[in-house]
Amino acid sequence: MLEFQPLTLQDITVLRPYFHKQPSRICDSTVGGTFLWRDYFRTAYAQAEGSLFLRSEMPGSGEIIYSVPMEGDETLALRRLKEHCDGEGHPMTLSTVSAEDLPLIRSLWPDARVETIPEWADYLYEAEDLKELAGKKYAAQRNHISRFNRLYPDWSFTPITPANLEAVQEFFAWFAQVHDKDSDTFREDERKVSEVLNNFDLYGFTGGAVWAEGRIVAMSLGERQGDTLYVHIEKADIRYHGAYQMIVQQFARYACTGEIRYINREDDAGDEGLRKSKLAWRPCQLLDKYLVHID
């Protein structure tokens, strides 16, 4: 049997190497995608035979779900996980399965029931597109940025560092108060953004902020893994017209260097407004994720 223990903030250092070797570009296979929601999903982990196993609970139903094991012999790890589930007396349900992992799972269990969950799909963009915003398809974004330039000619972009971290924390405290929502996911997002800012070195994220009129008006935080930048946190003061468009472009220009070719801006969580906004940035691909039931 696998021995699972609750996932804590201090586990980032130990488990980070598993995430950095993942072949897919889905946000769930990153430090941020896992640790930022570890409490909401009551995530626990186990290590065995060179593989990392993650177990979570679906909010509301309490259904136990697992991630595809990371690293080691994937076939051996999946069979080990199936034996564990059999021993626990419940079906093996794999959540947020990537397209890369699906063929192996189907080869091991041909009768597995596979569901596509549309609201889980990640929006993937060409980094060059968001850096340059070239062509007719980005005319609207360029117009917003041009207006921002006219309204706030003193604007600047700075990387987030220990020197300006306090200002970023003050901006987010203001943002959370103004945009307060009676929602479990909003509260969890608020707690975890504060956690990232309070443990900036431990998380190891890269970040940037747009300033105007002497204050921060937008911020973004994410992590680079393989050839992809994963944007986990993005906030802006909408009183400053074009602030969101500015942080998207400026953060892409700052963070997408070297081998970074893509930007993952995560899913839309089924929110129609968020879906419309993410589609407006013209993704090059929607990364489907699957829920796989193995009886």
Which sheet architecture does the biggest sheet show?
7 strands, mixed
| Order of strands across the main sheet | 8-9-10-11-12-7-13
SSE string, helices as H and strands as E: EHHEEEHEHEEHHEHHHEEEHEHEE
Distance between the termini: 18 Å
Q: In one word, what is the shape?
A: globular
Oligomer: single chain
Question: Any overview of this molecule?
Answer:
With 295 residues, the chain is an alpha+beta fold. The protein is built from 11 helices and 14 strands. The strands form 3 sheets. A 7-stranded mixed beta sheet has the order 8-9-10-11-12-7-13, sandwiched between helices. It has a 4-stranded antiparallel beta sheet with strand order 1-2-3-4. A 3-stranded antiparallel beta sheet has the order 5-14-6. α7 packs antiparallel against α8 (184-198). The longest helix has 15 residues, at 74-88. The mean pLDDT is 96.
Brief description of this entry?
With 295 residues, the chain is of the alpha+beta class.
What characteristics describe this protein?
single chain; seven-stranded mixed sheet; 295 residues; 11 helices; alpha+beta
Give the SSE layout:
Elements (H helix, E strand, L loop, with lengths): L4 E2 L5 H8 L11 H5 L8 E5 L2 E7 L6 E3 L7 H15 L3 E6 L4 H7 L4 E4 L5 E5 H6 L6 H13 L4 E4 L5 H14 L5 H15 L1 H4 L2 E7 L2 E11 L2 E9 L6 H13 L6 E3 L7 H9 L4 E3 L2 E5 L1
Parallel strand pairs: 11-12
Antiparallel strand pairs: 1-2, 2-3, 3-4, 5-14, 6-14, 7-12, 7-13, 8-9, 9-10, 10-11
Helix pairs in contact: 7-8
